[in-house]
Amino acid sequence: MLNKLALILAATLAAALPAVAADTPAVDTATLSSSKIDLTPEEVAEREGRRACKAALCAAFRNPANGQNVACTVKKSLRKEQLEKIVSKAKVSWPWGRVVCTADLKADRAALSSALAAAKQAVKFAPHTVSCDIEHDGEAPSKITAEMTPEVTFEKGKATKAVMNWGKVEGPTLVKGLMWTATATDNTVNVLGSMIAADVNDFVTAKCDEVKTDWQGK
Questions:
Q1: How far apart are CA 35 and CA 144, in angstroms?
Q2: Model pTM?
């Protein structure tokens, strides 16, 4: 049970990078961005704050002309009920509350557009650090940070493989121990790869179409 929960926690941190896409999914599948919910004013503000970053990433993927590289900060909250839905697929329960993650997203625009157009090409992102606050009832949130250097392989316009390449993990002893186990497992057998690849594909297609007026021609 703890191993499954640890992997879900790792998936939550991993979701902070494609989370720029995770507003309203086009379909309700088993991806990390799956949840059809009414947003609170705080969540609406988060979504609007991600919009410029989302448009910059979409322009990088879908506009062949070179431009500025992507560099922006993304913030994403996942409610307890959303996390419960995700972990239920692993037949475990979520023992904590809401999770709020922040990451500084960096990407080479030329590399992204080239990968999407190529027959097969891998994109290795710069090292990223994701920071998450995990809320507890009646207690201060636990802060955990994790380093990763993601790599995504594209074939004929679709992400077919994703590897997180986890690095250093910092946080309270219990959560850090779970995360260390999860990230070590994912580095060995790539448990989260298919889920991350599915989120990338949803982002490049449906999510980018949602903000097409923001990135088209830019």
A1: 24
A2: 0.80
